[in-house]
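Course assignment 3, question 2. Fill in each field.
Student: A.L.
Task: Predict the tertiary structure for the chain below.
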Amino acid sequence: MSKAHILVIDDEPDITTLIQDILEDEGYQVDTANTGNQGRDLAQRGRYDLLLLDVWLPDIDGISLLKEFLILPQAPTMVMMSGHATIETAVEATKLGAADFLEKPLSLARLLATVDHALAERDLARTLTHTDTPSQEGPLGRSPAIKSLREHIKKLAPVDAPILIEGEAGSGKKLAAYALHRASPERGKPFAIVTAAQLNDPITFAEWVGADSDGKLAQANGGTIVIEDVDTLSPNSQEWLDQWLRTGSPKRLDGQKLTLSARIVALTLAPIAPLVAQHRFRDDLYYRLSVLKLTMPPLRDRREDIPEMLEHYIDHFVRQHALKYRRFGIAAQNVLRQYNWPGNVRELKNLVHRLLLLGGDETIGETETQQALAPPHHHTDPSSPCPLNLHLPLKEAREAFERTYLVQLLTNTQGSVTDTARMAGLERTHLYRKLKSLNIDLHTGTTV
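Answer field:
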């Protein structure tokens, strides 16, 4: 099996040469660039599995490049590199989509561990098998809501029918899908995840279904296939998926049917029934997908699970990232129990990661926790009416509303492009263009 293709972008030739030598000794294929423009050209021409990207470059900052690379048709996994002075910027980059970051001066052991882990996570997101398992086998917790969910999973797992899992962003739908797989007769068989964006894009659609030969879906034969963000499928993708469920065999681009027997689990952020009523989602497809349903409870409805989840994620990041152990004190845990968790489990996991990365006393106190939870800028009460300036022309009034709307969504999703795009009903590429046209800085979530 060939090693991954890695691109290193840093303005110091000594550093790029050193990293290249180290990684090539490990069998990786490595290219380097010393400016942002050189790195952009290489990333757009080639297909890389991983990018090591410096925060500060002579011609363009790394955060801007990170945003550009995230919307590439085959976006690579990205790890940011930074000196101590920019460590908070690098931490912020993980909110935007970076998988991790490395602090300079670079440690050989840390470099290799980070590269290995980032690539392993990328492989996990593409196709999981029984030998490549997530850090946990299902939703954590002992609350009544989670106990009920586990019982429901046990009942549904043996049934040979599609399953629709609904729930808010970050609530753990993929973990529920994996728990279904582990409890089903297909356990030990392939577990694959394909996103709606991949099925909507002609290039990645061809890679998954195949043009004149079998694509990636065929590798999941006999297992479970998870379709993420099914509510954002394009009309063509909906028609293709409906044909698959109706006939039992998906079609390749050449019209030939794939020989594929797999359990389909569909994940959705927005409830699909209203989309059907608005004629934005096929009613026949909805009925086929929702034969069986699960609903993930939001974290605010099961706050008693927070201590167990904190313990799990602290242990995970200490082991996987070799970070210093820290624990949340009683007062800090009380703060977390009272918080509303708009970003759900993902927000809690990111909070733990951020506080471990920044370091400090072994016990995380109340004040540090409150500061970590505080929004980076003014948070508008979503229940308050949006102020309108009736003296503006229609075009300017519409832009003012869109600007306020998108800034608020970025605040609510903690800068998550994927979640913001889902909630706004936009493709990610369209969202980036819209943010740029409205002069909204994605990194800060404010207007510029």
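Instructor remarks: The two ends are 47 Å apart (CA to CA). The longest strand covers residues 77-82.
Grade: pending
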